[in-house]
Amino acid sequence: MQSFEFVRAPDAAAAIAAAAKSNTAQQGASVRFVAGGTTLTDLMKLNVEHPARVIDINELPLNRIEPLPGGGLKIGATVRNSDLAHHPAVVRDYAVLSQAILNGASGQIRNMATTGGNLLQRTRCLYFRDTAMPCNKREPGTGCGAIGGYNRNLAILGTSQHCIANNPSDMNVALAALEATIHVQGARGTRAIEIADFHLLPGDTPQRETVLEPGDLITHVTLPPPAAGSRSMYLKLRDRASYEFALASAAVVVTTVDGRVTRSRVALGGVGAKPWRSPEAEAALTGQPATEATFHAAADAALRNAKPQSQNAFKVELAKRCLVYALKQATRDA
Ligand SMILES: Cc1cc2nc3c(=O)[nH]c(=O)nc-3n(C[C@H](O)[C@H](O)[C@H](O)COP(=O)(O)OP(=O)(O)OC[C@H]3O[C@@H](n4cnc5c(N)ncnc54)[C@H](O)[C@@H]3O)c2cc1C
Ligand code: SF4
Question: Ligand 1 centroid to 228 CA: how many Å?
Answer without folding.
Answer: 32
